[in-house]
Amino acid sequence: MGSDAQATMAEHYIHGFSEAERQRLMAQARMLATPVFGGLDLSGDRSLLEVGCAVGAELQLIAQRAPHLTLTGVDLSSMHLRAGQAWLAGREQIRLLQGDARALPFPDDSFDVGMTIWVLEHLADPEAVVRELLRVVKPTGRIILTEVDNHTFGFDPPQPAISAWWDAFNRCQAEVGGGDPCVGAKLRGIAASLGAEVLAETPRLVISSADTSRERTEQLRYLRELLASGAERMLAAGYATTAMQQAMAAGFDTVRADADIAFRYGAVRLVCRKPQPAGADDPALSLPR
Ligand SMILES: C[S@@+](CC[C@H](N)C(=O)[O-])C[C@H]1O[C@@H](n2cnc3c(N)ncnc32)[C@H](O)[C@@H]1O
Question: Is residue 223 part of a domain?
Fold first, then answer.
């Protein structure tokens, strides 16, 4: 399948495909499980597709929360999928397939739920992915998009060295990868442009120093690893220097040592469904609480 598309993505994708990145994705899924899945009711669904599933970290968490579901993951990266298949071997509830989110290898009306989590930010044409998700979910189904809005990331008081790195990270992602790191704020407009019916739009604070349910040091470690995950691509493409990288790391040391420095990072979850025929409604549709 699409080896050209895979090669292009592999060359430009900000996070890369290293073993460290695979570990980061697993830790990220655990760290952000509550903001990503909190309030979602999947009890009335039978099949779920996650597009851009990488190593299956989210699917494994969904399987734990909703063991009745049949889960399908699609990703363009054969490297991530191989790692996911090895890790998830023997889990018959989950299947992983290689495919392009912009041309999904499924017939119309195949799934109850279609999902993306931290994927649309990497694509120049997120509309193409949402269009495909709308095509492959059933008329009674829904799509759930959970995507970052990188404008929301920040510290109080400001941390200039971290911000300088973050600005470079976002420019690199947009200019080299062709994505939109603030796509979370645009989900409603994308869905509306495709005629989808928006059922819920929820800002999700994925990281916050005010959240006492999670360790401050763990949240900061997550943020630091997220920012560091762009280093190879940023340095190679001239968006950052090793001096900036060191200053960013020192900035995180400062924040860790001072409990009065606040931080936050937000995302948006949009739930929508296919355009419905006039007058049609399904009382069994399961909406997020
Ligand atoms: C940040 S990862 C998110 C992985 C997963 N959703 C999670 O939360 O752990 C983004 C994933 O999107 C995949 N991806 C990027 N462009 C894609 C495309 N056109 N089709 C399918 N997958 C794609 C990448 O290979 C990568 O695995």
Answer: no
Q: Supply the residue whose CA is at minimum distance from atom 13 of ligand 1.
A: 52
The number of domains in the chain is 1
Mean pLDDT over residues 35-54, rounded? 97
- Domain of 119? 3-156+179-210+263-273
Query: pLDDT category, 153, cuts 50, 70, 90?
Result: very high
Q: Is 209 helix (H, G, I), strand (E, B) or coil?
A: coil
Enumerate the β-bridge partners of residue 50: 73, 115
- pLDDT confidence bin for 288, thresholds 50/70/90: very low
Q: Provide residues with CB under 6 Å of ligand 1.
A: 9, 15, 25, 29, 52-54, 57-58, 75-77, 80, 100-102, 117-119, 122-123
Q: Is residue 66 part of a domain?
A: yes
Q: Residue 170: inside a domain, yes or no?
A: no
CATH number at residue 19: 3.40.50.150
pLDDT over 70 (residue 107):
yes
| Pocket test residue of 1, 75, 121, 131 for ligand 1, highest count of atoms within 8 A of CB | 75
Among candidate residues 245, 121, 127, 279, the one with its CA nearest the CA of residue 191 = 127
99 compared with 12, residue with greater pLDDT: 99
Whether residue 222 is contained in a domain is answered as: no
Which atom of ligand 1 lies closest to the CA of 50? 6
pTM equals 0.94
- The CA-atom distances, in angstroms, between 10 and each of 29, 152, 180, 258 are 22, 27, 17, 38
